[in-house]
Amino acid sequence: MNMRINGKEYSSDQEARLLLVDFIRDVAKLTGTHIGCDTSNCGACTVMVDGKTVKSCTMFAVEAEGTDILTVEGISKEGESLHPLQESFWKNNALQCGYCTPGMLMSALFLLERNHHPTTDEIKSGIAGNICRCTGYFPIIRSIKEASEKLYPLDHDRTAGLM
Amino acid sequence: MRPASFVFFSPRKMSEAIDLLHTKEDSKALAGGQTLIPMMKLRLLNPKYVVSLAKIPELQPEISHYKEDGVETAVINSLTTHDEIYMSELLRAKFPILSRAAGVISDQQIRNRGTIGGNVAHGDSLSNLALALLVLDTKVNVEGPKGSRTIDVNDLFLDLFTTALEPSELVRNFSIRYESSRRQTFLEESQSAGTWPFASVAVSVVIDGESATRDARIALGGIGPTPLRVTKSEKFLNGRSLDEENILKASLLASEDLKPPSDMHGSSEYRKNLARVLTARALQEIAGPKNARGS
Fold first, then answer.
1. CB contact burial B57-80 (16+ within 10 A = b; e otherwise)
2. Residue A105 is inside which H or E element, if any?
3. What is the mean pLDDT of the segment spanning A22-48?
4. How near does any CA of chain A get to the CA of B47, in Å?
5. Chain B within 8 Å of A163 (Cβ-Cβ)?
6. What is the pLDDT of residue B293?
7. What is the pLDDT of residue B195?
8. Are the CB atoms for B183 and B204 separated by under 8 Å?
9. I need a labelling partner for B294 at 20 to 30 A (CA). Which of A17, A68, B243, B262 fits?
């Protein structure tokens, strides 16, 4: 099996039944991606495969042959310690135990790439596949909103009067 | 929870995939895997051979359309994902019911991976896309060891998780005839975002000049072994206008013969009532604000 994770090539002989999440954690040794429910519900294992979020517990590693994978370890730019989303999660206390955070960040990243300025409802639907049992979601929603403003500053002239 | 061992094939040709499914006993076709993989992890299914469809050119995600003798037809290839259906400008304009049904399937990650072919071939009574396709003019184009054939979507769902597809037949694509005057909507009720609905409804009707309904189609999900059309209610609506009284009668007719299952999420009576309420709401939405009053 060959795939690129966070820009680095990985190659390994593995059984066909190996799940992508196990390849990421056990073969590539990138343990930022978590296994939560292991039943396709909680979203803790969310990664991007060729730019789209997937639950890596619900995909065989062999299906990711030749793809580009992005995990939480790869979201901040080089030389930057935290991605703006990570920073705003930190600032807003959008995590307590932190177990859901890697998956939550990947879903938030996908959402913001597609929709630079989501409404609260759009954020809720964007993270519907990620379960957090600590925060009650409000700090997470706030963080995503805040990060969207930082990542994609609004054109103030155009929106003047609307805000 | 890891699946049992299996041998994995990723054929580059449709004929090769069909041949593998036909000759290898205990083989399964893998599309998006969002149902198959969880079932394999729970060891509800332990196929010896898994045949991935991902590399087959004819099945690649694509939504196209063509015009022939003035009739417009959209073609959705089997491996098109729910997210691609939801995002398609063409479908939003011509078949809004498909975007709406696809956009509320489970969650974003599942929609990024799950495919229309896999979803419909699985034959779940609660398949949003199956319901939407049932109220459109849909032909299912399949290919198998004996060649290709076309199945009308109304003949596809036979029983619980059982379709008219032969074990080694594959859905190649869905072709859907466009009718500009067909109004359509899809509604579902679920416990929370991302969970399976208790029940769902797809409705489409053509409304002629005098506001009379023609060729009404109503399909219900989650209330029987398969997604099903409620013909008694459809027949009643044909030729009548979508006023409050007719909507009430039609929704009662749609639900009166139903015997939905009971489970921990909802009783049979609850689902039956939900089928009536959802049918009424869908018809009200189609009738438009002029006729519709909240239920």
1. ebbebebeeeeeeeeeebbbbbbb
2. helix A101-114
3. 97
4. 11
5. no
6. 44
7. 82
8. yes
9. B262
Q: Does A129 touch chain B (CB under 8 A)?
A: yes
CA A146 → CA A76, A118, B156, B170, B286, distances in Å?
17, 11, 48, 46, 38
d(CA B27, CA A61) in angstroms, rounded, equals 19
Residue with tokens 């939480």: A72
Within 60-119 of A, beta carbons closer than 8 Å to B belong to 60, 62-63, 65, 107, 110-111
Contact B142, B151 (CB under 8 A): yes
How far is CA B152 from each of CA A89, B94, B149, B165, rounded to the nearest angstrom?
Answer: 51, 20, 10, 12
CA distance B290 to B246: 15
pLDDT one-digit tens code per residue, B17-50: 999 999 999 999 999 999 999 999 999 999 999 9
Residue B175 in contact with residue B66, Cβ under 8 Å?
A: no
Q: Any residues with CB less than 8 A from the CB of B2 and at least 6 apart, and which?
A: A17, A19, A22, B41
Helix (H) or strand (E) holding B130: helix B128-134
The answer to whether A60 contacts B8, with C-beta atoms less than 8 Å apart, is yes
Confidence at residue B211, expressed as pLDDT on a 0 to 100 scale: 77
**3-state class percentages of chain B: helix first, strand second, coil last, to nearest 5:** 35, 30, 35
The crossing angle, in degrees rounded to 10, of helices A84-91 and A138-151 is 140
Q: What is the pLDDT of residue B290?
A: 59
Q: Exposed, middle or buried, A61 (CB in 10 Å: 0-12/13-18/19+)?
A: buried
CB distance B242 to B287 below 8 Å:
yes
Q: What pLDDT is stored for residue A158 in this prediction?
A: 54
List the one residue out of B50, B49, B52, B68 whose CA is nearest residue B60: B52
Instruction: Indicate if the pLDDT at residue A160 is higher than 70.
Output: no
Q: What is the pLDDT of residue A163?
A: 43
CB B107, CB B117: distance < 8 Å: no
> Going edge to edge, which strands form the sheet with B71-77?
B63-68, B71-77, B170-177, B137-144, B147-152
* Burial of A21 from C-beta contacts in 10 A (0-12 / 13-18 / 19+): buried
* Low-confidence residues in chain B, pLDDT < 50: 291-295
Q: Hey, what are B72's tokens?
A: 């417009």
**Which of B155, B157, B200, B153 is CA-nearest to residue B177?**
B153
pTM score above 0.90: yes
